[in-house]
Design goal:
The chain has 283 residues and is an alpha/beta fold. It has nine helices and eleven strands.
């Protein structure tokens, strides 16, 4: 009944329904939530960035913070392993340099720090699965099982290009077809789906580092993605291009910029976080 929908809106605007309810979920970052009002159920979100720019870093930081906030969250990846992701999550959560995991032996202090952090994280409502052979059909099935079994609210998919490459129908519109299915799935299951996407190389040919700030047209399959995505976030780090100070002389070496280039029914803007390279953490 339409009356029930209207009553839900009344409850929301009068404060009887919390802002992070069944429909809205915090990203874990107040500065991002201030623009997006969190992630909303049924929405399809795209994070774009060049390789090494920090798209996966942003996704993992949000994934971890959401799970710590007791939001059931899942992360599906086609280009890494569960073990690698687990180590990065421990680094982020414990402020532990990722290089520590490359040692052949661990000091007692390092052992204790890692184990204590694992004990703190082991019961958060999160799930990670990595499979380089995922295609859109197998991924959709895995997501449906995850949502049905664990009431998962937010799904991360890393990344669009590998998923589209595994599509049996290798035509020019495969990015669009994959995005259409993910968009429909978000609506069908009333969940948030966040997919990571690479950018084409044209961005590297623009002169001046500010000209290299990503635009929607830099996304692979940009015309389809622009029409389907509810939110598009572009990540950008000046230090990626060896820029450590801005024109005013301010240090930007650790700046991690998130450009909200599409926000259906909402404002655009730029969010600046601080990136700690040694631990992959954002603050």
């Amino acid at each position: 009944m339409i009356n029930n929908l209207f009553q839900n809106i009344i409850d929301e605007v009068t404060g009887q329904k919390p802002i992070y309810s069944d429909e809205f979920f915090t990203t874990g970052f107040e500065s991002i939530d201030n623009i997006l009002t969190g992630f909303q159920s049924g929405k399809f979100v795209v994070i774009g960035g060049r390789p090494g720019m920090g798209g996966t870093t942003l996704a993992l930081n949000m994934f971890l913070r959401e799970a710590v906030n007791q939001i059931p969250t899942a992360y599906f990846s086609l280009d890494t392993t569960e073990r690698e992701i687990a180590k990065k999550l421990i680094s982020i959560a414990g402020n532990i340099p990722f290089s520590n995991f490359k040692q052949k032996t661990y000091s007692r202090q390092a052992q204790d720090k890692i184990i204590n952090r694992i004990l703190e994280l082991k019961d958060i409502p999160s799930f990670v699965e990595c499979n380089p052979q995922f295609n859109i059909d197998t991924l959709v099935n895995r997501i449906k099982v995850q949502v049905s079994s664990h009431a998962t609210k937010i799904i991360y998919v890393d990344n669009l290009q590998l998923l589209a490459y595994n599509d049996a129908n290798q035509d020019h519109d495969r990015y669009g077809k994959v995005c259409i299915q993910l968009k429909k799935l978000a609506l069908e299951l009333n969940i948030v789906i966040v997919v990571l996407s690479g950018l084409n190389r044209q961005v590297e040919y623009r002169e001046g580092y500010e000209a290299k700030i990503p635009q929607i047209s830099d996304l692979y399959g940009s015309s389809k993605i622009e029409g389907l995505a509810d939110i598009i976030l572009m990540v950008f780090r000046p230090a990626y291009y060896n820029v450590y100070y801005d024109m005013e002389g301010n240090e930007v070496q650790n700046d991690f910029c998130i450009h909200v280039v599409k926000h259906k029914n909402g404002p655009l803007g730029t969010i600046k976080l601080i990136f700690t390279k040694e631990t992959f953490s954002l603050t």
